Amino acid sequence: MTEIDQASKIGEIIEAYPADQRFALAALQDMQHAFNFIPEEGLAALAEYLGCPQAQLYSMATFYKALSLTPKGEHIIKICNGTACHLRGAMNLATELKRDLGIEPGQTTEDGAFSVELVNCLGSCALAPVMVVDGNYHNKLRVEQIPGIIESYAEGVTDHD
Ligand code: FES
Q1: Is 90 exposed, middle or buried, given 0-12, 13-18 or 19+ CB atoms closer than 10 A?
Q2: pLDDT(161) > 70
């Protein structure tokens, strides 16, 4: 997306809402959805439109986990690091992902294909360790399965149900 396209999309998102601070979160969510993150320009434009300090929107964007101020990858990999998964080797999964993708939790690959996140319990403790890619659960995961899983997402084969 060019800068001009981005600016016009930001304008479109913002103007879809009344200039009322109650709609700030909805507009931020729409930007997250449109760009996969919230661009700095989006925060500035929304602050101006709503007549509120940009810092207020910044706090909102950092508070809500679904919002991100840095671009996220096309595929989001979540490694559960809750107690059960941690005890069953969640960090070994993170180490393998680092070997395969070259990124730590909290980072995105340079080509924008993958982001890795460490998250709290995903509610499938009996199936630990758990990794979720684009919403698909990979349960009782073994380290040696990871390269194949990554490859399938990289190739666009995402039917893991
Ligand atoms: S600790 Fe990982 S699913 Fe509960």
Answers
A1: buried
A2: no
The SS3 call for residue 104 is: coil
Burial label for 127, CB within 10 Å (0-12, 13-18, 19+), is middle
- Closest ligand 1 atom to the C-alpha of 124? 3
pLDDT digits (tens, 9 = 90+) for 116-140: 999 999 999 999 999 999 999 999 9
Nearest one of 129, 152, 155 to 140, comparing CA atoms: 129
What is the pLDDT averaged over residues 22-46? Answer: 95
- In the chain, what are the domain boundaries? 3-63, 75-154
Topology of domain 75-154, CATH: Glutaredoxin (3.40.30)
From 124, 132, 139, 140, the mutation candidate for ligand 1 (largest count of ligand atoms within 8 A of CB) is 124
The residue nearest atom 1 of ligand 1, judged by CA position, is 82
Pocket of ligand 1 (CB under 6 A): 80, 82-85, 121-125, 128, 130
